[in-house]
Amino acid sequence: MKNRRKCSLVVMAALAALAAVPLAAQDTPAGVPPEGGRGGGRGGRGGGRGRGPAMPPPGPVPRTSDGRPDLSGYWNAGNNGGAVFEVQKHDAKSRSLPAGQGAIVDPPDGLIPYQDWAAAKAKDNFDHHLADEPELHCYESGLPNQMYRQFGFQILQPAGYVVMNWEFMHAYRIIPTDNRPHTLPASTKLFQGDSVGHWDGDTLVVDTTNFNDRTWLDSAGNIHTDQMHVVERFTMVNDRTINYEATIEDPKAYTKPWKVAFSFNRNAQPGYETMEFACNEGNTDLEHYETTEGGKK
Amino acid sequence: MTNRLVVCAELLLGAMVYDAAAQGYKPPRTADGQPDLQGIWEVRTSPDKDLEKAKGVIVDPKNGKIPYLPAALARKKENEKNSTSADPLGKCYMPGVPRINLLSYPLQIFQTPGQIAIAYEYIHNWRNIYLKRDKHLEAIDFWQGDSIGHWDGDTLVVDVGDFNDQTWFDKAGDYHSDALHVVERYTRTGPDTLLYEARIEDPKTFSMPWTIRVELHRSTQPNARLMEYECSYLREVAGKKEGK
Description:
The complex is a heterodimer. Chain A is of the alpha+beta class. By secondary structure, chain B is α+β, with helices and mostly antiparallel strands. Helix content of chain B is 19%, strand content 27%. Chain B is globular, with a radius of gyration of 18 Å. Chain B starts with a helix and ends with a helix. Classes of the chains: A alpha+beta, B alpha+beta.
């Protein structure tokens, strides 16, 4: 057997869309954190319980030798109102995607507070340029998109760092937690941005700048510019739940900052390991996408 | 004295394994007592153009030649002739092991009690090295192989199996089959130097195992970080410029 996980983006999207249907039906108003379920399964099918009715029950959290919450382990982001397809509240659109609440908790209408030009650009992406979705080209997802991507991720917490590695696209984030400043010149533009972190009590706060404008916020073509600035807060509320929120500001694209919030659920499956995800290696999805899904026009 | 005898014996036997104990450098330790290899590392001169022509990289066999079986040598030559179009790196594929450690792009090592991870600037590649698993996975293969590690004194030894047959060792078309088995050894030889050795065996391709050795150098700049080399993106940008 060749690659067990020779993943097709199109197949993945289809699977995740199917998985999203029952979850979407359970959607509760934005802002209610998901139920802390023990995530078990792989990627799109398992792990995420989506938005449930209950707050995760607080409980003791594991700690590292220096007393910080120990975030290490395998985590799943869940469905989060179909955020991977569209981060903002959305009606059922084409491509058989169900309606969803998205993951935006502020503003209360659940919509990205776009400037007019950016709203027009996002609409044009959806209507005409879905084949430009960065992930179809094997790019890393950027923020906040990376955080609700499917297939789960692992956190390692060696001294001075919180390190995240996703199975999807073997994307990673390296977050130093030694209070270092951003030192890259503004001209340096990165897919994943430049992240620096510090602990605010038991909450890991991560400040990320130096983004390029090549990533999308989701598969629906929502955008940001290279002026995006993201501040994230990771708070472990019990041994199987990390509450996550991110404030996204971008004075070139939005009229005001907006915020997403959801939880990561621990994948406690014994012996679980991240598998290898091949993307550039024999990627035919782009071709399929362009011929069957509208693609470039 | 004992160490010197060991080194001599190994030289005589052609085993050519770097003997860390003989060198005397004691690396710092992580909180859980592992030799601390963490940091950002990179080769100074990449041998990726041609391992055989890069001086001193193939340390075993002594003649510096990859011990191909006759049929395999013919295929290597064919690969080399078509390298410009056939090199898997030209298509932004994962480089495999040990090639990924030999490129002119930095890597960063992270250590936790049960797992070591290596992040690569080159196409955001990532390797997990499991310290608490002693068998390779069954009925599966990987571009980067399956890595299980253990400590041999202050040397991290990584046994890499479960490879596919799709990667090359260098631009010169040096290649392997899916029977490839690599044993890597990572040894800190000083505050800013990491010796990297890889013993390569593949009975379907080589008449005997062969070993490469390079030195990696640590980035000592404050606040150093990996940047991004996004191959497919750069290729698309280049393609657009050429009007493709």
